Amino acid sequence: MKRSLAFLFLAALVLACGSCRAVSHIFSDRLEAFYAQESQRVVHFETPPAGAPAFDIILIHICSLGWDDLEAASLRDHPFWKNFDYLFTNFNSVVSYTNPSAHRLLHAPCGQMPHAALYRPIPPECGLLDELRRVGFRTYAAFDHDGRYGDFAEELKKKDRTDPALPLDGLSVVEHNFDGSDIIDPSALLERWWRQRQDDAAPRAALYFNTTLLHDGAHFVKDKEWWKRDRVDRYREAVLLLFADVERFMKLLAASGRPAVVVFVPEHGMGLRGSKMQAAGVREIPLPRLTLVPVAVKVINGGPGAAGESPRVSNAPVSHLALAEMLAAFLRRPSLAAGDSGALLESLPRTPFVSENSGIRIAEKDGQLSLYPDYRPRTLLEPEEAEFFIQRRRPK
Ligand SMILES: [Zn+2]
Asked: What is the pTM for the complete model shown?
């Protein structure tokens, strides 16, 4: 909506609604207080102690994978999750679109920012890649796509200071995306990075890897009549391929003996089955079923070991700041294996649920979810959406 039209709409709304509070209060005090508090939070990365064994960090950022999608595809309890040491059941990706989600992950050292702030200059201490470089990491980027859609690669380079992406030449194409562009075999690309990293003398390396394998409308090259197939079946097959690729990659890392931390973190959900409030595949409203995503962390060659359950599960409400703190905590340790993994999970910063796309937010208070669109009064979310949210808080 153009600014002038939006203003007229807003003025009409205020005149028509005598009992409404002043416009400045449409965005509740609570949201303002939330953002004020978040602006104070920052995770500091410290140079690792002398003699601490170096480890690599691999961030695998996945488009279109939410808890709701996993449930719809009957993959919530898949053995894949047992590969990890830590699993977050209540991680809020905040946003339900790709580029801003990448900005949020790559600004993880700072508390949750309002959507518009993502597109303004960011304080230097908020840049995850810069912070990792500062404490001794050589950084890399790799995407299993050409990075052109939504100006993804360029935007990340400018906003998040990502490195030039690894070349994709010679790697096999596994899918075509909804716009016809190629999606490269993620497994082959991860292996290409791994070979390059091993030739690199840098003691510490960090990779930002982005995959769009699960995007709505992406389809396997081998599926000549993919549109005739059941949508859930196709999605399930792609998720299983991704699981197998990540598993294979983690085995490759383990076989090398080099310590590494793998962070599996989706950008946002896909909306595979939709709801009464929003049709399948639509992501305009950042509903919890789109922003509550399965995040898992594996410590390879130096992890917490076989003791206790695997993975350790956190039901706490967390977001990107918790991942920054987890990485910073690993860097503070004399070795990756040191420290109590349960205590680490408990110590991670929690973030009350506020999701946000451009012009629309959802916030929780006492288990009730409210919708705050720009220029319209707050409304309660449908009970079906609130129920999904509350269920995620219950330990399984
Ligand atoms: Zn995405």
From this structure: 0.90
